[in-house]
Amino acid sequence: MNYALEILRQTRQNYLSILETLTTEQLLTIPAGFKNNIIWNLGHTIVVQNLLTYGRADLAIPLEVELIEKYRKGSHPTKHAADSEVEAIKALLTSSVNQLESDLAAGIFKSFNTYPTSYGLTLNSIEDAINFNNAHEALHLGYVMAMRKLV
């Protein structure tokens, strides 16, 4: 599990490196041919990581309900995010990985509800969820890298 968390942490660091090069306006721009913007992709990865881990384990999800609703699967940006929301997402990119790592070490993930993903795989454990989440985050990192060139 340590290596899977290392991959997650590095992906999040890659997101943060990209964020450092962009303005808030660029983060909120929806490029032609896309349905979402860069900040939506980042908020989405944080929400999905928490839904796949805490949610499937019937644990309290350590995010605000508003954030979950705004960035969950199937959502789209409906209005511009405030600078404070962008800053909160930046902070969550790191803190949500730290929280997951701490909670894994504490052994709080005692059960897991099987989940058939739209990708065609079924998640049967917290380990499956973390490994699948890494693939999901890599996909969104690709979107972010493509969007960066268009904004």
Question: Describe it for me?
Answer:
By secondary structure, the protein is mainly α. The chain has a single domain, classed as dinb family like domain (Four Helix Bundle (Hemerythrin (Met), subunit A)), CATH 1.20.120.450. It has six helices and two strands. It has a two-stranded antiparallel ribbon with strand order 1-2. Strand 1 and strand 2 form a beta hairpin.
Write the CATH homologous superfamily: dinb family like domain
Task: List how many beta strands DSSP finds.
Answer: 2
Q: Might you state the CATH topology name?
A: Four Helix Bundle (Hemerythrin (Met), subunit A)
Q: Specify the CATH class.
A: Mainly Alpha
Q: How are the strands ordered across the major sheet?
A: 1-2
- Low-confidence sequence ranges: none
Euclidean distance between termini CA atoms: 36 Å
Largest sheet descriptor: 2 strands, antiparallel
Question: What fraction, in percent, of the residue positions are helical?
Answer: 55-70%
Strand content: under 5%
Structural class: mainly alpha
Categorize the overall geometry: globular
Overall pLDDT score: 95
Q: What is the number of helices?
A: 6
Order of helices and strands: HHHHHEEH
Rg measurement, Å: 15 Å
